[in-house]
Amino acid sequence: MIVEVTRGDLVESVHHVAACAVGAGGEIAFASGEIEVPVYLRSAAKPFIAAAAIEAGVRERFGLEPREIAVMAASHFGEPFHVEAVTSILRKIGAGEAALQCGVHYPYDESSAHALIREGRAPSPVFNNCSGKHAGILALCKAIGCDSSTYLDPSNPAQRRILDFCARMSDEDPHEWPLGVDGCGIPVYATSLRRAALAFARLATLQGIGEADAAALRVVREAMVEYPQYVAGTGQFDSELMRVAPGAIACKGGAEGIHGVAAVERGLGYASKVWDGAGRARGPATIAALRHLGALDERRASELARFGTPIVYNRAGRPVGEIRCRV
């Protein structure tokens, strides 16, 4: 797929996007570009990381609510309700903010960041967009009785459990995966887009995996689609895509142009990578692919037009071009 950025009548920039969609059995429904080269899934893996914690019993042990499970699978924008949900998880597991090793940054949500500045407050780890995931991993550590102070280490039993779960979703051996370090410090694995699409197909269909894994995926998927605003934020792409297609789609983006979609109604999993890492190409590519696959009808697509065909504005706020995808 090609995503073009226009200015006036000319194409000014081009982003190349590789993508793959598969069914629960791994049969390819759509492919574009190189789909077998390993790519880091980054935050697109978060639904499966959250499911590994759910499979270990954290929901029952700590009384976690769906909104808290949704934020475990989130790259949240640091809005007050996000921070409250993460703080609630920490309180339930008996951990303080200091236990979070994800680092600190201001909320991605501008109004929330400005509010902190006006109040003269510095951000803390709960404002980190990955704090929900980290809180969920801390809950996993406590549930299985391992050392939570080393939860970033790939050899920590919680991380081994996470990697094993993620590998089962794509029929792989986690010991063969290239591992890197994600922006928030946890181990991040690389797999092919075809294998990633298979994992999202299983999130969509709950087929081809064991009973316990399927039950855990169901809990996470239902939390995401019930509370989409917790997965990204108010007006953000993933949250809006799930809101506009309630129950039909569960999705999660990641850094460097990664995106994964569980097309529940179509029984398909989809994964894509913008090769130059440009996030602006992700929305147009995903919406074009989902329309091509019949996973997003014209009415829903029209509601997402600002993501599917974003307008390019100049500094004075005048439209000067657009971003569009060619499948």
Can you tell me about this structure?
The protein has 327 residues and is of the alpha+beta class. It has a single domain (2-326), classed as Beta-lactamase (3-Layer(aba) Sandwich), CATH 3.40.710. The chain contains 13 helices and eleven strands. The strands form two sheets. Strands 1, 2, 3, 7, 8, 9, 10 and 11 form an eight-stranded antiparallel sheet that branches. The chain has a three-stranded antiparallel sheet with strand order 4-6-5. Strand 8 and strand 9 (268-274) form a beta hairpin. Helix 3 crosses helix 4 (80-93). The longest helix has 16 residues, at 211-226.
Q: Number of DSSP strands?
A: 11
Q: Classify the secondary structure makeup into a structural class.
A: alpha+beta
User: Order of helices and strands, N to C?
Assistant: EEEEHHHHHHHEEHHHEEEHHHEE
- CATH architecture annotation name: 3-Layer(aba) Sandwich
What is the fold named in CATH at topology level? Beta-lactamase
Radius of gyration: 19 Å
Give the termini separation: 5 Å
The overall number of domains is 1
Count of individual helical segments: 13
Largest sheet, described in full?
8 strands, antiparallel
Strand content: 15-25%
* Helix content bin: 25-40%
Question: What is the name of the CATH class?
Answer: Alpha Beta
Uncertain segments are none
Strand and helix layout:
Layout: E1 2-7, E2 10-23, E3 28-32, E4 39-40, H1 46-55, H2 58-62, H3 66-72, H4 80-93, H5 110-118, H6 131-144, H7 157-169, E5 179-181, E6 187-191, H8 193-205, H9 211-226, H10 237-244, E7 249-254, E8 258-263, E9 268-274, H11 282-292, H12 298-303, H13 305-308, E10 311-313, E11 319-326
Antiparallel strand pairs: 1-2, 1-11, 2-3, 2-9, 4-6, 5-6, 7-8, 8-9, 10-11
